Structures are given as structure tokens and as C-alpha cells.
Automatic annotation (TrEMBL):
This is Acyl-[acyl-carrier-protein] hydrolase. Keywords: Chloroplast, Fatty acid biosynthesis, Fatty acid metabolism, Hydrolase, Lipid biosynthesis, Lipid metabolism, Plastid, Transit peptide. Its EC number is 3.1.2.-. Plays an essential role in chain termination during de novo fatty acid synthesis. GO terms for cellular component: chloroplast. The keyword Transmembrane does not apply. It is an enzyme of class 3 (hydrolase). Residues 116-249 form the Acyl-ACP thioesterase N-terminal hotdog domain. Pfam families: Acyl-ACP_TE, Acyl-ACP_TE_C. It comes from the Eukaryota. It comes from Parasponia andersonii. One of its GO terms (molecular function) is fatty acyl-[ACP] hydrolase activity. InterPro entries: Acyl-ACP_TE_C, Acyl-ACP_thioesterase_NHD, FATA/B, HotDog_dom_sf. Belongs to the acyl-ACP thioesterase family.
Length: 393
């Protein structure tokens, strides 16, 4: 296990190398090459004439050079020491393993004995809505970003969008089939959040990914989410079993822990809406080119905005979306026109009673479908709490 720490500590250039006696010869060579490459590179992030380098090599366990959680992972060691790039105040961390370039961009860190990946974000102004708090789409985007960085930081990433190397060789990709998110409160513009993510098996041919979002300063858990993923062939667009080679890649990362307790998870089937059962229908929704992802289908986060298009405006203004469950049925292309259907599942009296008892004031069932053949794309269920306090009644 080794890392290279760089900082602007003096005007002269100096190198100090400390190598334990039990360090493998191959590791010594890798460190020497890393320092040499960085010294001679014209594109190095730090100008050597003005910076000093301090290279420290340690060997926590030489036998674990290419292992994580006790198992080999593509011959790459994933450790808890990273490269600190840029100036001395930089917080961008990146792995400097033998086959990772010095200009690596990996961010975040592994915690909980390497099973959990943790990343920090600041809520930007363009990620907030009219009330200056983060939107549900923002939260979903941050969850997705953390998941992708988890795969990349683990050393598993192939050439696909979150696919492993063995998946890329077989033209396979991950697709989400269900996601459930519970929001305690939304962060405001400028707030810093910390996101933990990890994976576990889901049945024989699925994978579960969970997330927890905390307020960075108070450590309060403000959001929990869980999702189920399966594998699809990116050319035939058909679902596939998980090949044993892929299972061997991801199994060392499995953590048998759930972000949402089973009894609190929304696992019930979502009812199908029709023209007769839907209270509101919004037509003519058209995906844009920017809505497409690297796998050439509409990014799953984009569906949220279309789902909310058919929610009454007074609900959007006066209520907070506290729970959302999505069941993905079909892919959507840029050429498709969509319809958004919504229907309440609580009467006005039930909603008022729930409000008094601290339960969701409003519940809705939603569906996105193709406008031409009415084929389902997504079913969804949402819960909403009033932004008003009991005192204002």
C-alpha cells in the first residue's frame, strides 16, 4: 500500500523516500517509476520548480497488494491511502496504484473496512428549486454520481457507464429496476452533504445498492435510499444473468447491511393507472438529446421531472416530497413522446387526519407511458408532507 503526497512547502525541489524492509521489490519499482514520471511530465499538476515532493511508502500488508476485503480484484490494490493533488488545501483524493495515472481524478474515500464508499458534495444554486432547497432530482443525481465514483474508485470500472471490466468485455450494462428514497429534510443552497453508498446481492441475478445522506456538519441522517439493479446486454437490450466472472468481481464489495429497514421499505406493488383511473394526464412530453445517458437511453433521473408534471401546482408549492418509489418497466428513447398520469390515493379527509397524526398528508400514484402505443415506462408512488406547521392551522 503506498501513496504520494504533494504540497507547496518550499521553493526548492527535494525528494525523500522511506521504504520499509518488507516492501516487495515490485512495489519499490512502482514508486520509483511514479516519482520519475511525475518529475519529467510537462503536464504535471504541480510545477517542480516551486514545489517540494514527499514520497512515503508503507506496506500495511504486502500480501494484500491486489486484494480488497480479503479477495483479489483485477490485480489492483484498493487501499485507504490516496494522492493529495493540487495545493495544500485541496481535498481531491485519488488512488495512485500501479496502473492508475498520476492525474487520476477519483474522489471520495473508502470507510467501514473498505465496504462503504463516502463522498462529500456542496449544494449548488442551480441544484435548488423555488424554495432554495435541493430538489428530488438533485438528490437522485448525487446518488448516481456517488455510485459511479464508487465503481471507478474500486478499480473495477470498464468502458461502460458504471460497468465492470468483465461486463464491458461482454457488452453488458447495469440498469435499475426499482428505487425507493425517503427524505427527512432537504438541504439548502450552500449546505454540505456526505453520502455513503454500498452494494449487496439481490436474489440470484440482481444487485442492491443503498445510500445514506448526512448533513456534513451536524451528522444528521437526512435521506435514505435503496435500489435494485440487473444486467442488460447493451446491444440486444435484453436482460442477462450475472456471469460468474462479474459476480467474482463485485462479490468482495458486498456488505450485508440495509439503509432502510425491511419493515420501513416500500416494497408493495404499484398499481397501474389508466385513462379512467388517472385524475390528471399531461401529454406531449418530449425527451431532449441532453436527457440521454452514455448507454443511449433516457437517464432514470429524468423521469422524475416528467412524473411531477402532472402533480397539482398547489401540491408542488405547499408540500414537500418526502418519499418516492419508482418501478422502471421500459427504456425510453429521444424519439418517444410521453404522457404523465397522476391520481391521489388519499381523500381530503384522510389527508387531514394524517397531517394531525404526523403521517403523509398526500399520497399519489403515477405512471409514465408512451403516447402512441400506451406502453408503460415507469410506475411511481409518492408521499408528501405539508410545509405548514400545526400552529398555523
Amino acid at each position: 500500500q503506498h501513496y504520494l503526497a504533494m504540497g507547496s512547502m518550499a521553493a526548492t525541489t527535494s525528494v525523500r523516500l522511506q521504504i520499509p524492509e518488507n516492501l516487495y521489490k515490485a512495489e519499490k519499482n512502482n514508486v520509483a517509476l511514479a516519482i520519475s514520471d511525475c518529475y519529467h511530465s510537462r503536464n504535471a499538476a504541480i510545477k517542480l520548480k516551486r514545489r517540494r515532493f514527499l514520497a512515503i511508502v508503507s506496506a500495511k500488508s504486502p500480501k494484500s497488494l491486489d486484494t480488497i476485503n480479503g479477495k483479489k480484484v483485477n490485480g489492483i490494490y484498493v487501499g485507504d491511502k490516496f494522492l493529495l493533488k493540487g495545493n495544500k488545501n485541496s481535498e481531491i483524493l485519488t488512488d495512485i496504484s500501479a496502473d492508475t495515472p498520476l492525474h487520476g481524478y477519483l474522489v471520495g474515500k473508502f470507510v467501514e473496512e473498505m465496504f462503504v464508499y463516502r463522498q462529500t458534495f456542496i449544494i449548488r444554486s442551480y441544484e435548488t428549486g423555488p424554495d432554495k432547497t435541493a430538489t428530488m432530482e438533485t438528490l437522485m443525481n448525487l446518488l448516481q454520481e456517488t455510485a459511479l465514483n464508487h465503481v471507478t474508485s474500486s478499480g473495477l470500472a470498464g468502458d461502460g457507464f458504471g460497468a465492470t471490466r468483465e461486463m464491458s468485455l461482454r457488452k453488458l450494462i447495469w440498469v435499475v429496476t426499482r428505487i425507493h428514497i425517503q427524505v427527512q429534510r432537504y438541504s439548502c443552497w450552500g449546505d454540505v452533504v456526505e453520502i455513503d453508498t454500498w452494494v449487496d446481492a439481490a436474489g440470484k441475478n440482481g444487485m442492491r445498492r443503498d445510500w445514506i445522506i448526512r448533513d456534513y456538519h451536524t451528522r444528521e441522517i437526512i435521506t435514505r435510499a435503496t435500489s435494485t439493479w440487473v444486467i442488460m446486454n447493451r446491444e440486444t437490450r435484453k436482460l442477462s444473468k450475472i456471469p460468474e466472472q462479474v459476480r467474482h468481481e463485485v462479490a468482495p464489495f458486498y456488505l450485508h447491511s440495509a439503509a432502510i429497514a425491511k419493515e420501513k421499505n416500500d416494497s408493495k406493488k404499484i398499481d397501474k393507472l389508466t385513462d379512467e383511473t388517472a385524475e390528471r394526464i399531461r401529454t406531449g412530453l418530449a425527451p431532449r438529446w441532453s436527457d440521454m445517458d452514455a448507454n443511449q437511453h433516457v437517464n432514470n433521473v429524468k423521469y422524475i421531472g416528467w412524473i411531477l408534471e402532472s402533480v397539482p401546482i398547489n401540491v408542488l408549492e405547499d408540500y414537500d416530497l418526502t418519499s418516492m418509489t419508482l418501478e422502471y418497466r421500459r427504456e425510453c428513447r429521444q424519439s418517444n413522446l410521453l404522457e404523465s398520469l397522476t391520481s391521489p390515493t388519499l381523500s381530503e379527509d384522510e389527508g387531514f387526519n394524517n397531517y394531525l397524526n404526523g403521517k403523509p398528508d398526500m399520497k399519489y400514484t403515477h405512471m409514465l407511458r408512451m403516447q402512441d402505443d400506451k406502453a408503460e415506462i415507469v410506475r411511481a408512488r409518492t408521499e408528501w408532507h405539508s410545509k405548514q406547521s400545526l400552529i398555523s392551522i
